[in-house]
Amino acid sequence: MPSVLISGANRGLGFEFARQYAADGWTVHATARNPGAANELAALGGDVHIHQLDVTQQASIDALAAGLKGWSIDVLIANSGIIKAFDTPIDVASHRDFMEVMATNTLGPLALASALLPNIMLGERKLATALSSLMSSITRNDWGTQHVYRASKTALNAVWTSLAREWRPRGIACVLIRPGYVRTGMTGGKGDLDPPESIMGLRQVIAGLSLKDAGRLIGYDGKDLPW
Amino acid sequence: MRCILITDADTGLGAGLVRQYAADGWRVIAACSGRGANMRRPNIEVVAYDATAEDSAPRLAAQIGDRPLDVIIDCAAVTAGNDGHVADIIRHDWMATMTVAAFAPAKLALALRDNLQRGASPKLVAISSFAASIGACTAGHSYSFRAAKAALNSIWRSFSIEWRPLGIGCLLLAPDTGADTDRSPAEIAAALKRTINGADVDSSGAFLDARGTHILW
């Protein structure tokens, strides 16, 4: 069966990815900052492996990569992300807040993908996906607010498209995926859809991806989002 | 006398802009990390600015006081790193680039918003880069530089929306494209000045090259 690695899989969308892939019989590598508290993950049946990972710490990423040496990963889902108080504008964000969001949402996925390159190369699908957002789209921004989160996701789009270009010769498709406005802890329970529906849509998108899709930003509904 | 603040005024582009506006008779506040050599003119005031410091914005704002500013050009000067490949990214350098090119300009704009509001048809300009264009830039480049300038674009776009009711126009300029490659810094500065002068609050939120042509986000 294929294998997937999902970062930030202990709750929200990451957990739903893990739940659905595990139920489908995939080998699931699920990461959490604190695996000891990931009770829901531990309760999942199937071929689920839980790993410690804090994407803001290079040592943690390196340790994960060392532990996974020789394992293939067909699909990487760089899902971990923080919003650091949804409505916090840059007016009140400290340098520390700003950097924590950037380290988690932008550099985190990139550093994780880089460290897991050998595993992705061992996989058959060779897909590296990262979770973007409607908020990443400058074109669609007509109401401002939430500057730091927006900037982190726009910058993620910028670096992931670069990664797509860099890794295309290796046969790896790097694709940005957008879950939609999903009712999770991150949104304070607000949203247009529930996690199972969003993740069902994204899994369908992922199932259809190939190298020709490298560098796209595709929504759970199969539609591209403008930059 | 119209007043402009130019940051990183001791870099090539910044210095070129200082000379252009000073020659046009503006009062120029040149924010420099160095000593602002060769800027001794009656209408140029050199102030200290170090965008790498976390408290750079309030420190510069304190030097400006409550004076009206008609234009701010934040050069957000940062050199592209050697991280042209993902494996070459150095975490510390990546963070430093993000601080200088995105965090510091955002905080400075906020610290000087009231000064701009007291200016005449005020404009908040940030120097971005073609590398920040996700849609158009398909060449290789530094990961950290592209990320930081893309973050800058995102924030400026939000400011353009939120500050429109205040009458403040926000522009993103990419001087590294749209011009002939053999243009001198002085010629590029002159082209940027024309674009800035030609902009009004209706063009707020635009991302323009050196000729004033729109660039894809």
Q: Brief description of this entry?
A:
The complex is a heterodimer of chains A (227) and B (217). Chain A is of the alpha/beta class and 227 residues long.
List the helices and strands and how they pair.
The complex is a heterodimer of chains A (227) and B (217).
Chain A: E1 3-6, H1 12-23, E2 27-32, H2 39-42, E3 48-52, H3 58-67, E4 75-78, H4 95-115, H5 117-122, E5 127-131, H6 147-167, E6 173-178, H7 195-207, E7 217-219
Parallel strand pairs in A: 1-2, 1-4, 2-3, 4-5, 5-6, 6-7
Chain B: E1 3-7, H1 12-23, E2 27-32, E3 44-48, H2 56-64, E4 71-74, H3 91-111, H4 113-117, E5 123-127, H5 143-162, E6 169-174, H6 185-198, E7 206-209
Parallel strand pairs in B: 1-2, 1-4, 2-3, 4-5, 5-6, 6-7
Helix pairs in contact in B: 1-6, 2-3, 3-5
Looking at this protein, list some descriptive labels.
heterodimer, A: 227 residues, alpha/beta, Rossmann fold, 7-stranded parallel beta sheet, 7 helices, 38% helix, B: 217 residues, 16% strand
Question: How would you characterize the overall build of this protein?
Answer:
A seven-stranded parallel sheet of chain A has the order 3-2-1-4-5-6-7, with helices on both faces. The mean pLDDT of chain A is 95. In chain A, 38% of the residues lie in helices and 15% in strands. Chain A is of the alpha/beta class. Chain A has a single domain (3-219), classed as Rossmann fold, CATH 3.40.50. Chain A has seven helices and seven strands. Chain A has helices spanning 12-23, 39-42, 58-67, 95-115, 117-122, 147-167, 195-207; strands at 3-6, 27-32, 48-52, 75-78, 127-131, 173-178, 217-219. In chain A, helix 7 links the parallel strand 6 (173-178) and strand 7 (217-219). Chain B is built from six helices and seven strands. In chain B, strands 3-2-1-4-5-6-7 form a seven-stranded parallel sheet, sandwiched between helices. The longest helix of chain B is centred in the middle third of the chain and has 21 residues, at 91-111. Chain B has helices at 12-23, 56-64, 91-111, 113-117, 143-162, 185-198; strands at residues 3-7, 27-32, 44-48, 71-74, 123-127, 169-174, 206-209. The model of chain B has no long low-confidence stretch (mean pLDDT 93). The A-B interface holds A 58, 90-91, 95, 98-99, 102-103, 106-107, 110-111, 113-114, 117, 136-139, 141-145, 147, 150-155, 157-159, 161-163, 165-166, 226-227 and B 54, 85-87, 89, 91, 94-95, 98-99, 102-103, 106-107, 110, 132, 134-135, 138, 140-141, 143, 146-155, 157-159, 161-162, 216-217.
